[in-house]
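tokens incoming
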């Protein structure tokens, strides 16, 4: 499974902010970062849905 995290603070509270003609921009709900770059991380879940 892949998750997106904020490059500034590492939060997973990152959401699409704008798009279409301007390209995709993301906004972090924790630190307020706005920009085109996010960090995608691979995580592994066990059978119960808990991150390992």
């Amino acid at each position: 499974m892949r998750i997106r995290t904020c490059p500034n603070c590492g939060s997973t509270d990152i959401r699409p902010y704008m798009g279409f003609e301007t390209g995709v921009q993301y906004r972090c709900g924790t630190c307020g970062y706005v920009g085109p770059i996010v960090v995608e991380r691979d995580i592994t879940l066990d059978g119960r849905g808990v991150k390992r």
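note: Residues 2-42 form one domain.
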